[in-house]
């Protein structure tokens, strides 16, 4: 992920470019967009692909439109599945999302 051209978030860049664990079905994951992040669950793994289904994220803090956000996550078997392919620069989807494996994290950037 190239900071400034593929992401607007230094944190998303750091999260998706480091060493990651091997994906397993049922493991948590985070799908990183330009500045937002969405929690998901890995539902299928092949040698070159990871299929991630977005979780339902319920905000649990009372911080309003702030950087400090807390969520609780529930798997959503009816949610869209995004397919990520393994590349030299990490896990990438056709629509430009990047993947962090092993952690569920939701974040909404209110500045856009």
What does this structure look like?
By secondary structure, the protein is mostly beta strands. It contains one helix and eight strands; from the N terminus they run αββββββββ. Strands 7-6-3-2-1-8 form a six-stranded antiparallel beta sheet. A two-stranded antiparallel sheet has the order 4-5.
| Sequence of strands across the biggest β-sheet | 7-6-3-2-1-8
Structural class: mainly beta
Look at the structure and give the mean pLDDT: 87
What series of H and E elements makes up the topology? HEEEEEEEE
- Tally of strands: 8
Instruction: Tell me the β content.
Output: 35-45%
Number of helices: 1
Structure in a nutshell:
The chain is mainly beta and 112 residues long. 7% of the residues lie in helices and 38% in strands. It has a six-stranded antiparallel beta sheet. Strands 4-5 form a two-stranded antiparallel ribbon.
Defining key terms:
single chain, 112 residues, mainly beta, 6-stranded antiparallel β-sheet, two-stranded antiparallel sheet, 1 helix, 7% helix
Topology overview:
Layout: H1 10-17, E1 28-32, E2 37-45, E3 49-54, E4 56-59, E5 71-74, E6 81-87, E7 90-93, E8 98-101
């Amino acid at each position: 992920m190239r900071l400034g051209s593929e992401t607007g978030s230094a944190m998303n860049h750091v999260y998706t470019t480091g060493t990651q664990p091997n994906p397993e079905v049922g493991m948590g994951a985070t799908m990183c967009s330009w500045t937002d992040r969405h929690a998901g669950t890995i539902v299928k793994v092949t040698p070159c692909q990871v299929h991630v289904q977005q979780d339902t994220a319920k905000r649990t803090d009372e911080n309003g439109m702030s950087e400090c956000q807390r969520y609780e996550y529930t798997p959503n078997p009816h949610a869209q599945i995004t397919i990520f392919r393994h590349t030299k620069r990490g896990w990438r989807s056709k629509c430009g999302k990047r993947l962090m494996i092993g952690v569920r994290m939701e974040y909404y950037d209110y500045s856009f």
